[in-house]
Amino acid sequence: MPLTRSTGRSTLVQNSNQSSRRNPSRQSAAPASRAGNALSPSTPRGRGRRVFGSPPESDSDTSHSDASEFRSTSDQAPGSPSRRRRSTRIAAGHGSRAGNRVKRTSLLAKVSQNLSSASRRDKPKSKSRPDSSATNSPSKRRQTATQSKDEDDAPPVGGPDWSDPRIPYQFWVDVFLYARDNGADTPSAHWFIQVATSCKALSEPALTAIYRCPTIRHASKARRLAALLERCPTETRFNYRRKIEFLHIDIHVVPQGIISQLVRPLTRLRELIFYTPLDQPPYRELDSHIRWNYLEDIFLALASPSDDSLAEQLAPTSLKSWEWSGRLLGGYVANINDIVQVHQVPSFAQITRMSFTNFQVPSLRGLQQRPENNGDDLQITLEDNAAIDAMADAIAQLRHLKHLVFESSTVMTDRLLPLLPKDLHHLELINCWEIKSEDLAAFLLTHGNSLRALTLLHNQSLNLAFLTILEEACPNLRELRMNMSYFRHHDSLNDADPMYDFALLPHQVPTWPASIHLIDIEHIRNWSVDTAKMFIQSLVDNGRNLPNLRHLVIKTMLDIPWQARATLRSEIRPMVERVFLRKVEPPQDNMVIQHKDDTREYTRPRKRKRLSSSTSPLRRSGRIEAHTHDSPRRSRRDNKLRRGQAGRGMYRVPDTDEDESDMSEESDSAASDVQQSPTADEPAIQGLCNTVNIVFDNQKVRELQYSMEDFLADDDESSGEEWDGDEDEFDDNTIAF
After folding, report:
1. Distance between CA 617 and CA 321 in Å, rounded?
2. What pLDDT was estimated at residue 438?
3. Rounded mean pLDDT of 355-363?
4. Does 475 sit behind a cis peptide bond, omega within 30 degrees of 0 on the bond before it?
5. CB within 8 A of 628, min separation 6: which ones?
């Protein structure tokens, strides 16, 4: 595909809410905490975080020193590798989970308040002379002593005793990491600082949640962080060097001269990413030139870290995740062959996740300077093949690689796919135009046995035809994510249409592996109604063979009349929910259960007395009675009528024996129908999915997909009263058409 320059930078301004977000492909596979993991709001460019100084060492001044140390960062939002989300997920139509932040903040605030009150109770009280009038009587003194003892033994109000020393430090760290990484609205750094300065027990866990992946938004904050890391850990209250494990640096924000100062002291660094917003959606600035390259000082800092607190020589920093950008090649790392040499150093020996962004073949990069008809097609092909082979060689140097990401790269072709390692657990292909379904199917048949996750986002030439061999090629696959929305290559031209004729044909029936946990396919288009029904029916028919499925999301666009689409939605959605959705009944309140038990105890003798009354008919038939009580086909309405008619005749006296025989035959036929109900047409009920979302609409796919939540006010209050009619009822000038 031709790669041309954008006509201007206006796209980044128009899509500021989109391009400012970090990409999920740039996040490490290793979770930041054990407490939880989940989707985040957009943040300003670079997703930076303000950095703070260090407090004094005195324990008595902990609250004031921590507050002064981190006062300048009260308006920053904590960053996290697991919270970075691709901006195009806006098009997925996910609603915001309002109220999560309020509940989580109020809960942790209550915990902090209990800890503060507990610390105040532990302080020695000043000695004062008791009131003699209040304790002059021996009985009153005994009563006062008993009350004080009961107050001391009473549990704290509002929950368990959070000041209990048996609660470990790691527990609080997991709590704050979960509060930071989960929910639609994450708490700001100012909230974490308030928690850290409110109680000594929560000080270090709250700061750990901030420093695990610090966000640097300004150059001044980057310098302050570098100065803090250069200080000896014995001079600060906490060892900030060992708290930073993920570092994401925006090359437009952090000065290049202090990067080595930031990297060298971080002995526990696991992920290091240098990125530019130009490599992010909407991907229309891929050919822009930047005067920034990978310096040799960065790799020297990784090879020889320093820690003043340790006397012995430290081993090289062992990274787990790294990202290369083809835009930043030059100087020390000039081309892909130099990447091969870098991958052989000890700092990259334990890499488990590698990402390649904006790596184009030489023929595409020199397309504008090359004459149109030069007759050098063979030479161009040889250069492209050499670049692809060098990329495969660079990947082969990573012996422990499990997670591979290619984003906006034309080097990812049908020639590179067979050269990839066969023990990959997670493969991500994002905005790679050259990948087709036939190429991916051939790769999965030879390399898909060990795949656990497959992420395919915005690949313009990739349809769903490879799903026909998914069960055979990927028997251990757990997650399948696809987003079939695409980006325009030019600002003034709408060239974001799919490069395939059909997403799937009616005879191409998908197959699903039994190990699948998550299926998320969004923005399917260019298929017929029969194909859509066949696709959904393939999931329903294999419900009994998908015991591990917990998340099912299918969103498609059908260009049919709205009546037909509504009918299709009413037929398919209840069927899928009945087969896959988990039925969860909330537990009953203890008071409600106790009230029911008490009511049952009081009403049981009365019911027994009413049933023993002589209001039953004189003639009874055992078969009719069995039919009345045991027929499984009776409706809820009949049950309510029978319960409401307690005390009246429950047995109908048949007029003749023929009627009785007819009723017995009906009961026998009903019982036989019930026995034969689980036929082959009835789908098996899986009933284990926590999320089932089947969407059929005709909404056109756009880069920025707006929903109802985008037009709601920030506050919960209503924007105004609803209009209920014409206020000028008595206006004579009103004209009615």
Report:
1. 82
2. 96
3. 95
4. no
5. 642, 650, 651
Smallest CA-to-CA distance from 108 within 202, 243, 214, 211 is with: 202
**What is the secondary structure of 405-472 as a DSSP string?**
EEES-TT-STTTGGGS-TT-SEEEEES-TT--HHHHHHHHHHH-TT--EEEEES-TT--SGGGGGHHH
Q: pLDDT tens-digit profile of 77-90?
A: 444 444 443 333 33
96 confidence band (pLDDT: 50, 70, 90):
very low
Record the tokens describing residue 171, joined without a space: 């527990």
Spell out the SS3 assignment of 676-717.
CCCCCCCCCCCCCECEEEEEEECCCCCCCCCCHHHHCCCCCC
What's CA 111's distance to the chain center, in Å?
A: 26
Q: CA-CA-CA-CA torsion for 241, 245, 248, 254, nearest 10 degrees?
A: 0
pLDDT digits (tens, 9 = 90+) for 687-707: 999 999 999 998 888 888 777
**pLDDT band at residue 161 using 50, 70 and 90 as cut-offs:** confident
User: Measuring CA to CA, how many Å separate 267 from each of 255, 314, 349?
Assistant: 21, 8, 16
Q: The tokens of 424 are what?
A: 């990959």
pLDDT of residue 589: 63
Give the sign of the dihedral formed by CA 651, CA 655, CA 660, CA 662.
Answer: negative
Place of tokens 């049908």: 414
pLDDT digits (tens, 9 = 90+) for 173-220: 999 999 888 755 667 788 888 888 888 888 999 999 999 999 899 999
| Element spanning 324, H or E | strand 321-325
Least confident of 398-402, 629-633, 730-734: 629-633
d(CA 422, CA 446) in angstroms, rounded, equals: 8
- In contact, 512 and 470? CB cutoff 8 Å: yes
Quote the pLDDT of residue 33: 41
- Give the number of residues written for the chain: 737
Distance CA 187, CA 30 (A): 22
Phi, psi at 502, each rounded to 5°: -135, 140
CA pair distance 393, 336, nearest whole angstrom? 9
Beta bridge partners of 613: none
Q: Is residue 36 scored above 60 in pLDDT?
A: no
Instruction: Strand 518-524: give its sheet, edge to edge.
Output: 246-250, 271-275, 321-325, 353-357, 403-407, 426-430, 453-457, 479-483, 518-524, 551-557, 691-697
Cβ(688)–Cβ(653) below 8 Å: no
Answer yes or no: are the C-beta atoms of 190 and 67 closer than 8 Å.
Answer: no
Question: Per DSSP, what are the bridge partners of residue 271?
Answer: 246, 321
Distance, CA of 7 to CA of 26 (rounded, Å):
27
Give the integer Cα–Cα distance in Å for 674 and 690: 30
Locate 41 and state its tokens: 């709001």
Q: Closest Cα partner for 543 from 571, 576, 568?
A: 576
Please identify which residue in the block is written with the tokens 């396919």: 521
pLDDT digits (tens, 9 = 90+) for 502-539: 999 999 999 999 999 999 999 999 999 999 999 999 99
Over residues 91-119, mean pLDDT = 48
**CA-wise closest residue to 76 among 179, 184, 190:** 190
Q: Please tell me whether residue 523 adopts helix, strand or coil conformation.
A: strand
DSSP class per residue in 209-257:
HHHTS----SHHHHHHHHHHHHS-GGGSSS-GGGT--EEEEETTTS-GG
Residue 263 or residue 88, greater confidence: 263
Return the bridge partners of 428, or none: 405, 455
- Give CA–CA dist 572/196, Å, rounded: 51
DSSP H or E run through 170: helix 169-181
pLDDT at 711: 80
